[in-house]
Amino acid sequence: MRSLILGIAITLALPAAVFAGTPRPWLALNGSWATYSMSDVNADIRNINAQLAGSGLTMDEIGHGLGFGVAGGVETAGPVSIGLGYERLSASSEVSDASGGIRYHFPANSVRAFVEYRFPSETNRSPSVGFAVGRVMEAGSVDVTITGAGAVSAHLDGSGPLLEAFVGGDWWSEPQFALFGSAGYRYAKVGEVKLEGQTVINPDGSKYSMDYSGVVIRLGFKAALSR
Question: What is the pTM of this model?
């Protein structure tokens, strides 16, 4: 959790001047779309597709996914906003026929501490730039079904650092409610994945990874808890 602790420490160390006046706390809900860099996972899928050659079946590689999240923070009287957020990331692919199937179900949980700088604006729109640090935690499974024999599911876990830089903005419809959006790049890689407690190793001897790094776009709704 060192990355998350570092982010919280940075936000707490911001100059006291930005907190002059009355801070405005807020809560937010968001949806997201992101690209992923799942090289090890997709190498697996290509091997599966090679074994399926001639059957008419293919398993799609995993290159993107949707997410949803919640966040809370404080807008200071200055140009800085700080907060903490949670996001659930989705990633999956499967293939099946009458004889059975295989499913890669690789959701992950992410937590992040973030800081945003809001550019001065005399309108109801406030553009911003920001960065975040945190942690991504694998929470997936590999599910195999064989018709007539049943199903087997194996759990995957692991965690890794998260870093993010983004640009965005809030569009306030009235003093307490806003739509917001952001676009940026996220590094979020689980460098060691465990399957039922055992570290997964690639054929070349390297550790199997789950890489949720890539472009991330968020849209959401924000409610200020005070005027």
Answer: 0.86
